[in-house]
Design goal:
β2, α1 and β3 form a beta-alpha-beta unit. A seven-stranded mixed β-sheet has the order 1-2-3-15-7-17-4, with helices on one face. It has about 290 residues and is α+β, with helices and mostly antiparallel strands. The chain is globular, with a radius of gyration of 18 Å. The protein has one domain: 4-Layer Sandwich (Double-stranded beta-helix), CATH 3.60.130.10. The chain starts with a strand and ends in a 5-residue tail after the last strand. Bound molecules: N-oxalylglycine (OGA) and manganese (II) ion. The site of N-oxalylglycine (OGA) has 11 residues, from β7, β16 and β17.
Length: about 290
């Protein structure tokens, strides 16, 4: 194996060292990286990278089709103003301004969520490149929704098995944005859908919870009160520290996470210190 793997916690995540992601990779190496990432629950950190935008995209597309690539679905109508102006595959997360315009979305993901869950085909991997980071703060938390599912009682698992949840970007926009002003165009487009509450991973066959406070508005067939109670229980269970890791960035980190099996949370604790990250997002399967 041409890289070194170190777990970052027993529950989730590995650091993969010794690779230069800017260099072309053969199919075998890509397959080894994918397997290592899947074995780690779907979280890998690649430290000390130095990537151009094109290299970030080229690395990412080896793992699957990307939102925003020519001919593919755009990431989301609602975030078009935060995409890289020349490379719509890159979604920019930043509190920086450039020529009086936001350089990316400020306060993005400052709540537990799974990327693009409000689409019929939500994200598989997201690949985030840390270009500029605060002196301290601005960590990302991840929780393992496979471990959370497996820790449920058999009775709860049986109850959840047939359930479906409604996901809507309006939930994110209405309740969760920490800082950006929501404009009307943020809410247009086809950003509401229904997914199973428990999904089976297309590659590993593992079952995971697939609901999140960022986009899940309710459970099909339940009253709003019943929905809120059951979802609240699942969210507090899944985000127990036992299922979580917290990543503190070093500039140059590339972090790849699997939205099918994880939720993540951007910690909004760094005030006005500049933070600038670029993200590519793989188009996943219809959840089953
Ligand atoms: C994202 C996101 C986390 C962060 O890019 O999808 O949620 O810490 N960002 O910036
Ligand atoms: Mn996110």
């Amino acid at each position: 194996m041409s890289f070194t793997v170190n777990p970052i916690s027993p529950v989730l995540g590995v650091k993969i060292s010794g690779l230069d992601l800017a260099k072309p990779m053969g199919d075998n190496l890509v397959a080894e990286i994918r397997q290592t990432w899947l074995d780690a629950g779907g979280l890998a950190i690649f430290p000390e990278q130095s990537l151009t935008t094109e290299q970030h995209i080229a690395f990412s597309r080896q793992f699957g089709p990307l939102f925003g690539a020519p001919g593919n679905t755009p990431l989301q109508e609602t975030v078009s103003r935060y995409l890289h102006p020349d490379h719509p595959e890159i979604y920019r997360v930043s509190n920086r301004m450039e020529n009086g315009e936001p350089k990316g979305r400020a306060g993005a993901g400052t709540y537990w969520h799974s990327d693009v869950a409000f689409k019929a085909q939500p994200a598989a991997a997201s690949i985030l490149y840390a270009i500029e980071i605060p002196a301290c703060g601005g960590d990302t938390l991840f929780c393992n929704m496979t471990a959370a599912y497996e820790a449920l009682s058999d009775t709860m698992k049986e109850m959840l098995a047939p359930l479906r949840a409604v996901h809507d970007f309006a939930q994110t926009a209405a309740n969760q944005f920490a800082r950006p002003v929501v404009i009307e165009s943020d809410l247009k487009g086809d950003n509401r859908t229904v997914h199973p509450v428990v999904r089976t991973h297309a590659q590993t066959g593992a079952k995971s919870l697939f609901v999140n406070p960022g986009t899940t508005v309710g459970l099909d067939g339940f009253t709003p009160g019943e929905s809120a109670a059951l979802l609240g229980q699942l969210f507090s269970h899944a985000t127990k520290p036992d299922f979580c890791v917290r990543h503190t960035y070093t500039q140059g980190d590339v972090v790849m996470w699997d939205n099918r099996t994880l939720m993540h949370y951007a910690v909004n604790d760094y005030g006005d210190q500049p933070r600038y990250m670029g993200r590519t997002t793989e188009i996943g399967e219809v959840p089953e």
